[in-house]
Every structure is written in C-alpha cells, then in structure tokens.
Amino acid sequence: RKVETHSYLSGSITKETWLVSSHTEQLHDIYQHQNQQSLATVACQLTEESGQFRCQPLNEGSVFCFLPLSVPSTGLPVHVSANFAVMSNRSGIWTSTSSSSPSDSREWWNLKLMEVVIPKAYCKLLKLLKDLHNSNKLVEYDFFALLPLTEQLSIKQPWESLISQFYQLISKEDLFHS
Q1: What's the DSSP call for residue 95?
Q2: What pLDDT, in 10s, does the model give residues 57-76?
Q3: Backbone angles phi, psi at 155, to 5 degrees
C-alpha cells in the first residue's frame, strides 16, 4: 500500500510517499516451546512525476522496532521494521555478538525474522512495485534499484542472512519481464 506523510517544519510542508509491504507469520519458538506472531514491514520511498511514481532507493535504510533503533544504517535500499528482540538500550537488535549464549531465544527470534519473515515482506514490496508498473502508475520498472547487495551492507550481521534468503525467495517469483 502507499502511505503519504506530511511534515511541517519551519513553516514549510514536506510531502513524502512510501510504498509499504508487511508480512505476518506464526513462528514456533524452539526455546520457549510456543508459537509467536512475527511482523515485518519493508518500505521504499516513491517520488511523484506528472501523476506517476518513481522508486527512490535509500542510501541509508534504517531499522525500526516500532520506533527507530540507534543503528546508523543497514546499507539496504529500504527501511525495515519488525518486532525484533532488541538490546535493552535499543542500540541495535539482539545478535550472536550481543549474546553470551549462542542458543539464546532472542538471537533465534531475530534470525527467523531475517530468514523467513522479512524476505517475504521484501518480496511483497517488489510485487507491489510490479503492480504499480502494470497499472501504468510507475515511470520505470526499476525494481533492481531495491535489490539488496551484500557489499553495500553497513552491518554484516545479521543482515547477510536476510539477503541470501531473499534471493532464494525471489528466484521462485514472477517478478521479472522476459
């Protein structure tokens, strides 16, 4: 779906348009032996040109867990929000480097978000972009600008696991014109 925001700063109005996709899924936590609801959202900015939109990849995609986290940038061309397990000071998401135990349920949860839920939300975003193109509301079908690249990541862990799963997922989708 498209989301439009308006900011009022110093007497001027700034309008932004975002293409947003979400995915929810029940994950079975192997440490707590229960199902938990996961949620991930991926967003890209759109600019409007004569009633049509152009995808505007971000140079510094941010990470959110309901609010922004104190992570400088992921290096992804999109913003990512999910119900991550975060460190107590919200300086980042819980990873193996933040845990003294490699079998921590918080680490497992974030890994499942990276490998299962976020790639599906990301893939849905590309499908929405394709739908915009097919309805002649997109100037160019430049979905490739949103593809994540490992060498552009600012933070390798845990984002590398997202990228490999994402490419496996989109290889099975009908996203490309041939």
Answers
A1: -
A2: 998 899 999 899 988 789 99
A3: -125, 115
